[in-house]
Amino acid sequence: MLRLTPVVRNLIMINVLIFVGSFLAGKLTPLVDIGGCFGPFSHPVDIISAYLSLYGPHTDCFRPYQLFTYMFMHGGISHIFFNMLTLAFMGPILESYWGTKRFTIFYLITGVGAGIFNIFVSQVLHIGSFGVMVGASGAIYGLLTAFGMLFPNMEIQLLIPPIPIKAKYLVLLLGGLSFLMDPSGNTAHFAHLGGVIFGFFIITAWRRQGN
C-alpha cells in the first residue's frame, strides 16, 4: 500500500481537482476559441485550459504565470494517471529523504525549467514545433533523474513490461527515449529532457554544497 507524504498528496489532489474541473468546464460551459494559440493543434478549449495551459511566447495567449500552472494541467486520463502514479511511487521516498521544503523546491524548479527548456529548443534553436504544453511530465522526469542519482541501484517494478529495473537504467532509458522521439508531434518530448537536465544540475549543485 502506498504511503503518501504531505506534499505528494497535495500535488496529486491539486492535479486531479484541476483535471476534473477542466473536464466539467468543457461539458457545462461554452468552449473558448483561442484562435491560433495552439499552433497546428488549434481548437476550442474549456475556460480552465485556456488560462492555465502554456502557450508559445510568440502567441498572444502566452502569460509568464503559465510556466507554473501548465504542470497542473493534463491532456487525458492516461496522461494524468501515469504521471500521478510515478509521483506516488517515487515522490514519498524523495520527500522523506529531502524533507518537505527541498522536495517542493526541486519539483517546482524542474517543472518550470522543463517549460523554459522546451520553449528555448523550439523558439530559439527552431527544433520541432510549439503548440501548447500541459502536464507534470517535466517535473516527473526531474524526480526520476533525482531518484536515479540518489538511489541508482534500487529496483523499480515496471507496469509495462512487468519487470524490475534498476533506477539508474530507467532514467537513462526514459531520458534517451525523450531525446530520440520525434519532437514535431503533440508531445513535448524536449520538456521531458528539460526536466532531466534541470534535475541533474540541481542534484549536482546540492552535492557540491555537501547536502
Automatic annotation (TrEMBL):
- Which UniProt keywords are present, listed alphabetically? Hydrolase, Membrane, Protease, Transmembrane, Transmembrane helix
Question: Which GO BP terms apply?
Answer: proteolysis
For this UniProt entry, what is the primary localization, expressed as one broad class? membrane
One term under GO cellular component: membrane
List the molecular function annotations (GO) for this entry.
serine-type endopeptidase activity
Output the SUPFAM superfamilies linked to this UniProt entry: Rhomboid-like
Q: Enumerate the subcellular locations listed in this protein's record, separating them with semicolons.
A: Membrane
How does this chain sit within the bilayer? Multi-pass membrane protein
Residue ranges occupied by any Peptidase S54 rhomboid domain in the UniProt entry? 64-205
Fetch the Pfam families from UniProt: Rhomboid
Query: Per the UniProt record, which residue ranges are transmembrane?
Result: 7-25, 67-91, 103-121, 127-151, 163-181, 187-206
Protein name per its UniProtKB record: Rhomboid family intramembrane serine protease
Gene source species: Chryseolinea soli
Lineage summary: Bacteria, Pseudomonadati, Bacteroidota, Cytophagia, Cytophagales
